[in-house]
Amino acid sequence: MTRIEVPDGSLFGLDNLPYGVFSTQGTAPRVGVRVGDHVVDLAATLGDDVFAQPVLNGFMAQGHARWVRVRERITELVSGDVPDAAVHAVSDVRTHLPFEVADYVDFYASEHHASNLGRLFRPNAEPLMPNWKHLPVGYHGRAGTVVVSGTDVVRPCGQRKAPDEDSPTFGESRRLDIEAELGFVVGTGSELGSPVPVEEFEQRVFGAVLVNDWSARDIQAWEYVPLGPFLGKSFATSISPWVVPLLALETARVATPPQAPQPLPYLRESSPWGLDIALEVELNGQVISRPPYREMYWSPAQMLAHMTVNGASSRTGDLFASGTISGPERDQRGALIEITWGGKEPIQVGGEERTFLRDGDEVAITATAPAASGGRIGFGEVRNRILPAKGAQR
Amino acid sequence: MTRIEVPDGSLFGLDNLPYGVFSTQGTAPRVGVRVGDHVVDLAATLGDDVFAQPVLNGFMAQGHARWVRVRERITELVSGDVPDAAVHAVSDVRTHLPFEVADYVDFYASEHHASNLGRLFRPNAEPLMPNWKHLPVGYHGRAGTVVVSGTDVVRPCGQRKAPDEDSPTFGESRRLDIEAELGFVVGTGSELGSPVPVEEFEQRVFGAVLVNDWSARDIQAWEYVPLGPFLGKSFATSISPWVVPLLALETARVATPPQAPQPLPYLRESSPWGLDIALEVELNGQVISRPPYREMYWSPAQMLAHMTVNGASSRTGDLFASGTISGPERDQRGALIEITWGGKEPIQVGGEERTFLRDGDEVAITATAPAASGGRIGFGEVRNRILPAKGAQR
């Protein structure tokens, strides 16, 4: 038996307990929980086949009351002695995509980000579209290309047309970018024809992950009118392997910034679901931005209510992301296009001037939130490397 | 034993053989093939468990060579005597969603449709966006709300703002519309980082279905800038229950209309995948349009090549639809917004002036294509009724 020691200041103490899917050499992927620098095998300790599955979907579908009970049992379990065979050093495990993604929706909920992009893309118009303060603007992305942290990202090819070119050319993206976001995972879905009220957010949403919504700005700029982003986004969306339970984020809840005009009734919250989560974005080991989630205009409860208000059903494994998280300051912006103002204002990284991503670059996004015990809890990281394009016709 | 009689002129002769998922009273959904006015139970006749599944995905994933062999075996089987218990009158079975939808993509491949919508939405600008003739414009839709023919469609609610209103109001859609489309189902997917060449279309795509991509034009008009359609589309997308194998559409292949400028190399076809498929749209039993698929500018092989050219993977069950099919004539348009020119030019249906859909309306889309034997094959139908909105705050 083993007593798991949680190092002082660990971001994975008993007030976090994030779930993931892991494997060790020669074993099948299964559900585990991270405690300090260890992963506890839930299939081996809790005696429920739902944890022997290679995705969290089965457990997530069991619903909120079950999530509460399992969290209590895990707390008891890891406060005592745990069988040796059920405990692995986090450095010894491989983490997998933690859940099967049903539908993937990406919102656009940061006023700073939407305003910055409006200024960059439509310099002679109002930065925000007329609808922006009335509803959380969002669109569907590609569920099949959501990948887990550690998966290399191949630079995409596609059609691009610079403003000074007559016609598009085919080739590798020259403006490959990141988008630092938070994603929310639906545990218990809702039926066709039954909108989810804002109040049901915490009953239905299982947890949150970090998201890097890779964006090929040149492909996107050429393709996106009038039906929105498509290939500029669909080549890859990376998520962190540990799903932080919504139950661990109670202490992080804050009010969203003031919403004016007042939203329509279906978007009004009776209790706030803004979240005081602090992100960090590293490029090749150097912090280039610290996006503050608490600045987000629309809350995730409002996003879910909006996404279903037309009667659309939701399913276990639906992932909805916040959109790029940007604060008011330059070093709080969650995308390179904003940080470098469309590539015109480079930043210094590793002694070089940098704008968009180069082959070989490594991007890591991390985040922490205040914990119930007074310390902080962590989201782990989403970290990926950029590989050169394959077979680009240059 | 039963010898299945195929009535003269049937659209479901041996040159069609579409696959679906059906059940009879008290039995589990399983795979069948339609022959004349009968459904043959493939689980009961071919002795392969893949047909006992409630979706076609397992069979579709087996690949092109297997699709060819099974089609040959079915042809032999239904040319002789079939066990009584494996044959059901089509009127005695219930049809189900034939496959689990992985990702759903909707294209915009009709030049007539895109031009009409451009004129309606942006009257003072060029009807087609600059990118339209360079690439098949498309976007991701909601896979979880793809439903089978026969599923009632509840009028959606949402935010709408008329041009003469100061701010949006919440309520039921006042401009509920249809979009008559054809959808293509991926059988064998492709890996992340491996674009599908146009030539691989027929190896990878299993078959085609009719699609009614319901659209709430007022919700869509308010929400769609800058990230594209979202709630105006995501409440329901209906498909026909019988998947017509691509193998049955060889005789329907035609060249697409001339494409100028010449597409970039990755979109050039060595053999044509335009399709001579004739659709009919009925509103409450009256034909209101006959959209010609052969007028579509972009072919489905070009759509698949474009969808994956950035390295996006594809999966068994991916559904990509053509976008509204409209021909050059008014009575060839596939959406009410075009037929009635934004509601300003009503049509006569059942002795009444009609523009957008009313509660209680029933819409049916059917289609036929030339058959190898000289007759025609049918797609069956996608037929749905509009139910009143639930709990709209009027």
TrEMBL record, chains A, B:
It is an enzyme of class 3 (hydrolase). Its cofactor is Ca(2+); Mg(2+). Pfam families: FAA_hydrolase, FAA_hydrolase_N. Mg(2+) binds at D213, K233, T237. InterPro entries: Fumarylacetoacetase (IPR005959), Fumarylacetoacetase-like_C (IPR011234), Fumarylacetoacetase_C_sf (IPR036663), Fumarylacetoacetase_N (IPR015377), Fumarylacetoacetase_N_sf (IPR036462). SUPFAM superfamilies: FAH, Fumarylacetoacetate hydrolase, FAH, N-terminal domain. Substrate binds at Y108, R122, Q220, Y224, T324. Keywords: Calcium, Hydrolase, Magnesium, Metal-binding, Phenylalanine catabolism, Tyrosine catabolism. The active site is at H113. Residues 16-98 form the Fumarylacetoacetase N-terminal domain. Residues 105-386 form the Fumarylacetoacetase-like C-terminal domain. Coiled coil: none annotated. It comes from the Bacteria. GO terms for biological process: homogentisate catabolic process; L-phenylalanine catabolic process; L-tyrosine catabolic process. Its EC number is 3.7.1.2. Transmembrane segments: none annotated. Ca(2+) binds at D106, E179, E181, D213. GO terms for molecular function: fumarylacetoacetase activity; metal ion binding. Pathway: Amino-acid degradation; L-phenylalanine degradation; acetoacetate and fumarate from L-phenylalanine: step 6/6. NCBIfam families: fum_ac_acetase. This is fumarylacetoacetase. It comes from Saccharomonospora xinjiangensis XJ-54. The lineage of its organism: Bacteria, Bacillati, Actinomycetota, Actinomycetes, Pseudonocardiales.
